[in-house]
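Page 47, continued from p. 46.
Same chain as before, 359 aa.
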Amino acid sequence: MSEIIATVLKILFFILVFVFNTAALLTWVERKQSALMQDRVGANRARIFGLRLWGLFHILADSLKMFLKEDYRPRGAETLLFWLAPGISMFFALVAFAAIPFADSLVIGGRAHLMQIAPLNIGILYVLATMSMAVYGVVLGAWASNNNYSLMGGLRASAQMISYEVGIGVSLIGVLLVFQTVNLQEIVRAQGALLGGWLPKWGILYQPIGFLLFFTTGLAETKRIPFDAPEGESEIIGYHVEFSSMRFGMYFLTDLIETVLIACITVTLFLGGWQVPYLTAAGFEFPWGGRLALSNLSVTVLQFLGFSLKVAALLWFMMLIRWTLPRFRYDQVMALGWKILLPLALLNIFVTAAVILFL
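Result:
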């Protein structure tokens, strides 16, 4: 019973508090960051009791607008699939977080609880499998809308997501060769060792090419600029053109949740995950000999803060790319995935395997 309660609390904290709030905050970050880059003020009109708080109340205003708008269903639409499709996309984006470790373990009542909703031995395979299922929500929603432009957007999305899922899977094999496991918690723990007694052995040191390939293919999986061909606002509007109210809101929020997911996976595999340099289970142990003892609760909080800061830095960088690069043409997206990224990922595997074999 205590294990069930612990799992429920981890779901409430990591999914409902961390993931949902981060995705919601991205709607504000996107507006303010783009405004700063374009020398504008950005969203600042929504206020409560005269307080504007740099436009933060726009998050609440946008949510209310989504819930209160008319929920339109086009004539001829497949009712059941039209209703279910946005939920299917969001469900598979959320369940992928279950295998992400956001700290090591918290001791409560003499019992250690892993800070991971589902401590799976096949963590990477589980994440890749759930990510690949999200395409069904897009394709079914596009087809059920009974709109040719929507269907074209759905076909573009399915082709793009399937193409880049191949690249994502292949780009991660180098990481698996280095750490010899598919357990995400074990991979993060292995990155806590020090190279030469002072440099953390983060995955990016061993797999810099793998990091660039995974991050690029991950951006394509989020279907956001410069990989937003499935939406194509100036051409076909996208697979969600017939969705309104909170159904469109669920598709929009799913894109942001997938952005957070890609950032979390990148941090877990390449940037040390929850590891903080020189922080051990007993506290800080510096290479020059200093020590600072900390309680298990303090260490767990610092690990989660370290994980959150790394994710926030990657999200800022992803927003920077989103507001800097123009959209790729559809043929350019396909060519980049199949002719450049996939061959590079295969070459990275051979080089990594050769280095491990001969060293």
